[in-house]
Structures are given as C-alpha cells and as structure tokens.
Amino acid sequence: MSFNQPGDAHPPVDGALQAELSCPAECTDARIVLVTGGAKSIGAAVARRFAANGDTVVIADKDGTAAAELATSLPGKHLAKSLDVAVESDVVSMFEELRGRFGYIDVLVNSADTADRIVPAIEQLSKQLEHVLDVNLTGAFTCAREAIKAMRPGGVILNLGSIDSFLPFAPRHAYGASKAGMDMLTRCMAAELGPVGIRTATVAPGHIRTPALAQLAKAGRIDLAAIGRRIPMGRMGRPEDVADASFFLASSDASYINGSILYVDGGWTSFGDAGNASELYDECFCGGRRLIARPSQGDRPSIMKPRLHDAPEVLEIQACACRAHSRSADVSITRRNHGICHFHSGRPAWLSPILRKCHPQLHRTGRRFGAGWVQHRVVC
After folding, report:
1. What's the CA gap between 157 and 186, in Å, rounded?
2. What number of other Cβ atoms are within 10 A of residue 130's Cβ?
3. Which of the residues 70, 94, 123, 326 has the least number of beta carbons within 10 Å of its own beta carbon?
C-alpha cells in the first residue's frame, strides 16, 4: 500500500533474511522518545505511556511551561522543550541539541496539531488554511526529516492523524486536508525508509474525550450523546487508548507494520449503516439498550457505560449478577411503559436463577435471540 513505483522496494538478497526467520528481540534498553505537542491531552498521555515503560521522553510543546511541569511529574529523568513545529529553524536547532545530548533518537511521535475554525468554505481565509497546514503537515514533515538524521535501524516515526482524513468533518477543510496529507506522508516515508530499517505509521484517533472536544460540545458544535450512539462500541475514547496504540506501534510486536494507518475510533470508520451503531444490535432485542456489567473486586459491581437512568431494581440485578460470577455478564435492558423492563441475558444457564433470586418478579419469557440469548421481564 505504500510502495507504488517501478523496480524493487528492497535490494535483492540471497536466501531468507534473518529478520524473516525469527521475531526481533524486545529492546530492554531505555529508548529516546520525542513527543511533539506532548504537554497536554493525547500528547501528554503518549508521553506518560512511554515514561511508564522506562523510556526517556523529550516533551516538545509550544507551551514550554506545561511541558516542563509534565516532565517533572513523570518518573525518571525526562526533558522538556519549548517548540513551535511551524518554525523550521527552531525544529532544526532542537534536533541538533538532542543529537548532541543523546546521540540518537529511537521514536518520534508527531502529535502537535491545530484546527481551523468551523466556518463555511466561502468565509475561510487562505492564511487560516496555511497556518493549519504549516503546523499539522509541514511541521510533522520537518520533525520527521530531522529525526531521520538521528535514527538508527529500528527507529520509528508515528504520525497522529485523524478519522477526518477518511470521513471528513465539514467544514473543517484545512484540518481534514492536513491529516489526509499526513497519511500520505506516512506511506511515502514507509516506502523510502523501510529498506534502512526505519518504520512509519499513522495513529488515527476517533472521538477522544479531550479538552478540545469538550469545547466543541460546550459551543454547541457537536452533540456528544449523538456521537456516542454513532460509535459501535457505544462510547468515546480516552487519550490513553491512543497512547496504548502508539506504544504498540513503536514496539517490537509491531516490527512488520510499516506505512499503515491504525484507527483508534471504537469502530466509527467501520460503520456505514443508517441509524445509531451502538443501538442497532439492541434493536434486535425489542429495541433494548445494552449495558455491560463486569465483576470487580469485592461486592461492588462495575457497570460500563449505562446509557439510561436505570430503576434501582435494575441496578440491583446488575450488582447481583456481578457478585455471583467471575465472568462478565452481557446485559440488555429496555425501559418500557407501565413499569416493565425487558432484560436480556447472554448466559441464561447461570444467570437466570441468580436473577430470579435477586428479584422475585423476574419472569423468563422463553424468547431466544441469537446464540443463547434469553429474554426476561421484570416489573420495576
């Protein structure tokens, strides 16, 4: 998907490459990891993830004070740099300093970005477009170019893209265009740098709970509840989800991943049907809404993402199911008129008697849906 030109992508070799015969050994030495835009939000989560692994993290951000505070708070010795990636001379100077200090860089995470104002195309100014491209695309390229000079075989360049490069968010024209350009930058570099042992990949977050997303919601630009229903997993992501994906791509477990785009979006880019993705499954169960109750330590249950105001009796059923079994209990509940709740269990063999004991008004209707799902009814 990344190499599309005449000739061979890699010089011919005799026999099988050693790398094809065995997995590369996991690097146990602390790596030098540079995270641009690393002081806040997703970038900060990425910095924390690598620091937790024992790597030395360089946090480069336009907000130098926030970068310094984060570097100080992380375990181990880390470095903070004030950097505007749109200023090429500053980028070059910083990398020269890092090469002089560390000698090399193992991982670059291009996380610095900005977004344009949400205005119609006929009202958007060229200088606004240029600024977004300067930061998101040109800045990422400049950092990658300088990082390559300091990388050894095994180096990794990760670009933080967006689902907007696949499914655009109108009218953020500049942001979508910059992230689409970043995807192609990743693939071009994968084709060019693969033969020398440097990998590249794009991490494309979906709707992540960040301060920027909260501001859009507060301004009425987006509807968080509607977004949650559109995501097949039924929830928005966390910055840590993106950080974990980034850490994986930079590890030896991803040693054969090069030029790829990893969507961290809860299935957003996979859903092409009409309606709400996270509710389609439950429409097969009389329009129910699905809750997932998982057991936790002690007698206190952990219920993931309740999306309705459950009656106390329903929560009691959830708690009982969690306490009674070590496995998770998949639960679908629909609030009905006249105080009737429909309750669906994926493990009726062990859950049904527990639920009846928990609530005497629980009745099994005998209706089955799919693989082992049984409908119950309880008067709330």
Report:
1. 8
2. 13
3. 326
d(CA 129, CA 310): 47
Q: How many other β-carbons are positioned within 10 Å of the β-carbon of residue 369?
A: 15
Coil, strand, or helix at residue 176?
A: helix
Q: Which residues are catalytic?
A: 175
User: Do 207 and 213 contact (CB within 8 A), yes or no?
Assistant: yes
Beta strands 260-264 and 199-205 are parallel
What are the two backbone dihedrals, phi and then psi, of residue 226, each rounded to the nearest 5 degrees? -65, -40
94-146 pLDDT tens trace = 999 999 999 999 999 999 999 888 788 888 889 989 999 999 999 999 999 99
Who's near 126: CB < 8 A, 6+ residues apart? none
Token match 């390229």: residue? 141
Helices vs. strands in the chain: H and E counts, helices first: 13, 13
Q: The pTM is what?
A: 0.70
Of 75, 41, 98, which Cα lies nearest the Cα of 241?
A: 41
Full 3-state SS string of 231-292: CCCCCCECHHHHHHHHHHHCCHHHCCCCCEEEEECCCHHHCCCCCCHHHHHHHCCCCCEEEE
Map tokens 């181990």 to a residue.
76
- Parallel, antiparallel or unpaired: strands 56-61 and 32-36: parallel
